[in-house]
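Researcher: I'm preparing a figure for a lab meeting and need a structural model of a single chain. I don't have an experimental structure, so a prediction will have to do for now. The sequence is pasted below. Please return the structure as tokens so I can convert it later.
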Amino acid sequence: MPLATGRLDEAERVFDRMLWLNPTDNQGVRFLPTDVKAGKAREDHPDEW
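Model: Understood. Here is the structure written out token by token.
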């Protein structure tokens, strides 16, 4: 899991690909790139995961 391990560049590519494959985004991925671009990893949101 790129976001969980702090590999933010890779996480951004994964989320972009997920949105391309699933444009209706029933998984809520559209909200995650904002955190990636802000440099936040999973450990920055312990209560949200």
